[in-house]
Design goal:
The chain is α/β, with parallel strands linked by helices and 361 residues long. The chain has a single domain, classed as Alpha-Beta Barrel (TIM Barrel). The chain contains 10 helices and 12 strands. Strands 7-8-9-6-5-4-3-2-1-10-11-12 form a 12-stranded mixed β-sheet, with helices on one face. Helix 3 links the parallel strand 3 and strand 4. It is globular, with a radius of gyration of 20 Å.
């Protein structure tokens, strides 16, 4: 889907830790598959893989290079990553890249984002045993109808089954040792005005009841298929006002490089987070590099189709780890993306974006 924009001979030999705006590389979001078992209208995956999926060895090469360049967090994504049969093997194989001392560079966490439908009790245990630290599950409604509508399922009966599966997955993850009190288990919800904005309070109530941090995400213009319009965005401020009117909140702020601003319930019943990419962009300290399942690196979620760097030329047997590291460094060094801050400018008007399921969200 994209071609290499550099060649090993042209990659600069000097590796800088920051991009053109002074942002370091801190998070690698690695997509394992573009396929999904749902068809959420804000994502709309292809339902098939791009050609040339990376092998386990190639993925480990990409992760190793990113860690050497400063990545301390690895998030495994899709599509739906639980569709990838080698998931546990990959997580186990990454363990030697962990930091073993506070002063030793290395991975600090390995996380997974999933819709939860395939997270059985056994799978949760296997993931934990392999070395996964955190799971974020997605749930965009608390009723069969809202779940069916937000996942592209055929009817309320299918929505009921999906809802039950996600609620069970939460408990499977908890039982496997993913403790929400330590931030190891969270719940994502994309809110689309006119589609599921009536679910903000019910989702907050569900999360409070189950002791989970709920992360409310503004509907974003990712890809070119979801019919995004600014009028469909329920802003983070509006969500917070709704929830705060029922359960008063106090701010915890947004830590450096984080996507979410966090809030604490004043009654002590946990926390809440909002991802306000549209209404309050956080491009200024974005530190995320995305690599697709077929090995194309993108430095922005809102990148244009075909604009990524195909890493496969540096993932051949005859290539060295040093060459791969320099290729990724060159991409990062020339990065100046800040689409969300420029969303309403002439520069970004009518721009096309690569699809979310391909980029890994």
């Amino acid at each position: 889907m994209a071609s290499a924009t550099n060649h090993p001979k042209t990659v600069a030999s000097h590796v800088r830790p920051n991009d053109r705006l002074g942002r370091p590389l801190g998070v690698l979001r690695l997509s394992l598959t573009a396929r999904c078992n749902l068809a959420c209208p804000y994502c709309l995956p292809d339902g098939k893989e791009p050609p040339g999926l990376l092998t386990l060895e190639q993925r480990l090469g990409v992760i190793g290079a990113a860690v050497n360049l400063g990545a301390r967090s690895l998030r495994l994504t899709g599509g739906e990553p639980l569709l990838h049969g080698g998931l546990e093997e990959l997580i186990a194989a990454v363990q030697p890249l962990r930091a073993t001392h506070p002063e030793r560079p290395g991975l600090r966490e390995i996380a997974l984002t999933s819709n939860g439908l395939l997270l059985t009790a056994e799978r949760a245990q296997l993931l934990r045993a392999a070395g996964l630290d955190r799971i974020t599950l997605s749930l965009d409604g608390t009723t069969a109808g809202s779940v069916a509508r937000m996942t592209g399922l055929a009817d309320t009966a299918a929505g009921e089954r999906a809802l039950a599966a996600v609620l069970a997955a939460i408990e499977h993850a908890r039982a496997a040792g993913f403790d929400p009190a330590r931030g190891a288990l969270k719940l994502n919800a994309v809110i689309h005005r006119g589609a599921n904005d009536d679910q903000v309070l019910p989702l907050a109530a569900l999360a409070r009841e189950r002791g989970l941090e709920l992360r409310l995400i503004e509907f974003m213009d990712v890809g070119s298929r979801n019919g995004w319009q600014s009028e469909a965005v329920l802003s983070a401020a509006e969500m917070l006002e709704q929830i705060g009117s029922s359960w008063p909140l106090e701010p915890l702020g947004r830590t450096a490089h984080a996507t979410a601003s966090r809030w604490r319930y004043q009654d002590g019943r946990g926390s809440l987070a909002v991802v306000a990419s549209v209404s309050a962009p956080f491009c200024g300290d974005c530190n995320r590099l995305r690599v697709t399942a077929d090995g194309v690196a993108y430095s922005c979620l809102f990148a244009a189709p075909g604009s990524g760097l195909d890493l496969k030329p540096w993932l051949k047997e005859e290539s060295s780890a040093a060459e791969l590291k320099l290729a990724i460094a060159a991409l990062w060094n020339q990065r100046s993306d800040r689409y969300s801050e420029e969303r309403n400018t002439t520069k970004s008007a009518n721009s096309k974006h690569a699809e979310m399921a391909y980029l890994g969200g």
